[in-house]
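Translate structure to sequence.
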């Protein structure tokens, strides 16, 4: 059986240097004190209203994401390599999307099959030949990273549409600073609080009119959206207006915001709703969340939408499997961050292998998210495996499969004390017209249940603060 890599302790049980101060601190800290601090953190989260809803659950009740007070530590050198790989990945994603809606060299070269583009439900014909500011489509990316050994970080998933979770990254740090100042004094931790400034600078750099003070707004579906807290949080941090579709209107292909002082032109819209709901005149006519005429203003080059319309063509799990080749094609470089080995069930040889090895594999829907629509073979019973076998035979193109990774673990406060739990990491990469910005760290998600590999909040996962050491 493969040994699971624990980020705090080596194979012989010795503490890795980055965790030595934390381990000494934990040894001196009574469990009752840690538990009391955890309750204080939960109280603060509840007081400031950091909750989320799980769609499809009865009453869709708002609830807290569990917060673990034991930080995850990443060394300066580890982060430096990781950041280079993230920048390379997002650069290739932008080149790919620009090409798919433009010359389509990648399709003619046979790097990516045409059907994965043209039959992709996220492909937007409206974007064919459409130039976007600075040829950038993915301005805010969330790249999910997992680790299996001391030297290897894998990309698990690319989130190029409206990645969420950054508010938890920032609030987790605020709460840790408040509750554990003595622990920070033992470490030189890189700050994350400049994310809001970086995001605002990125958004302003994308204005179609230029200028030093373009008007930026965050477009939210409204208070019933599961990520509404994050929308309002970011608007407050950035000092920009949080608007709903009814707050905006289009005149002469220019977007305006209704204000008490009269109409105010909007240059950049950080939209937190899906393409389908952006404009009832262009997409779903029954949408009451969007702005009639918004696509016309966008296509006229009078407003920047971030992320751009149609970015979903790059972030499904089938296209993900081609990302190493996409990086080589556009950048003539080897990928710095490897993919998880992936079987494309649309290919007969891959399908045969997957069907023969279902109990060993993780099977995912190509367009699935949130931990739904998955089979974790080693954790599934025979009935669940047979259900997925039937699904695969019926619609193989809708699935990919991957080996069950031994995700790294980090020390986590649980009922019985501090114990290892599996984690992943979502860093946030900002691509502006001037440069790429990445705050050190990201959102670490943790599977709070012993042995579980599913870190998604909708499946009971929690979060923890991510510390990148400055030296």
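Result:
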């Amino acid at each position: 059986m493969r040994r699971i890599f624990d980020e705090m302790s080596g194979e012989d049980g010795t503490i890795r240097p980055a965790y030595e101060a934390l381990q000494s601190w934990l040894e001196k800290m009574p469990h009752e004190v840690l538990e009391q601090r955890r309750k204080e953190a939960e109280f603060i989260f509840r007081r400031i209203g950091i909750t989320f809803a799980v769609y499809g659950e009865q009453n869709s009740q708002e609830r807290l994401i569990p917060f673990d007070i034991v930080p995850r530590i990443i060394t300066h050198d580890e982060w430096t390599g990781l950041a280079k790989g993230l920048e390379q990945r997002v650069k290739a994603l932008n080149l790919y999307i620009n090409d798919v809606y433009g010359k389509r060299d990648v399709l003619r070269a046979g790097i990516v099959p045409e059907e994965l583009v043209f039959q992709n439900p996220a492909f937007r014909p409206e974007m064919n030949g459409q130039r976007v500011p600075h040829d950038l489509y993915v301005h805010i990316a969330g790249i999910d990273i997992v680790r299996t050994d001391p030297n290897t970080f894998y990309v698990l998933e690319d989130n190029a549409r409206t990645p969420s979770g950054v508010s938890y990254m920032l609030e987790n740090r605020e709460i840790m600073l408040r509750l554990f100042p003595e622990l920070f004094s033992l470490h030189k931790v890189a700050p994350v609080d400049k994310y809001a400034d970086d995001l605002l600078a990125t958004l302003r750099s994308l204005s179609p009119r230029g200028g030093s003070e373009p008007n930026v707004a965050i477009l939210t579906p409204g208070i019933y959206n599961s990520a509404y807290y994050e929308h309002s949080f970011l608007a407050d941090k950035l000092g920009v207006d949080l608007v709903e579709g009814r707050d905006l209107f289009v005149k002469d292909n220019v977007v305006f915001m209704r204000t008490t002082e009269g109409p105010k032109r909007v240059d950049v819209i950080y939209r937190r709703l899906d393409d389908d709901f952006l404009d009832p005149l262009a997409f779903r006519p029954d949408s009451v969340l969007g702005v009639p005429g918004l696509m016309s203003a966008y296509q006229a080059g009078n407003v920047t939408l971030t992320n751009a319309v149609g970015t979903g063509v790059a972030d499904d799990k089938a296209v993900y499997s081609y990302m190493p080749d996409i990086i080589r094609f556009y950048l003539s470089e080897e990928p710095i961050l490897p993919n998880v080995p992936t079987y494309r069930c649309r290919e007969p040889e891959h399908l045969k292998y997957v069907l023969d090895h279902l109990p060993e594999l993780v099977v995912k829907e190509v367009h699935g998210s949130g931990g739904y629509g998955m089979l974790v073979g080693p954790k599934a019973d025979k009935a669940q495996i047979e259900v997925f076998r039937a699904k695969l035979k019926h619609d193989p193109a809708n699935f990919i499969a991957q080996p069950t990774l031994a995700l790294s673990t980090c020390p986590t406060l649980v009922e019985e004390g501090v114990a290892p739990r599996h984690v992943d990491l979502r860093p946030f990469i900002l691509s502006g017209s001037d440069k790429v910005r990445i705050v050190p760290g990201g959102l670490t998600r943790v599977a709070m249940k012993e042995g579980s590999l599913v870190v998604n909040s909708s499946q009971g996962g929690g979060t923890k603060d991510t510390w990148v050491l400055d030296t």
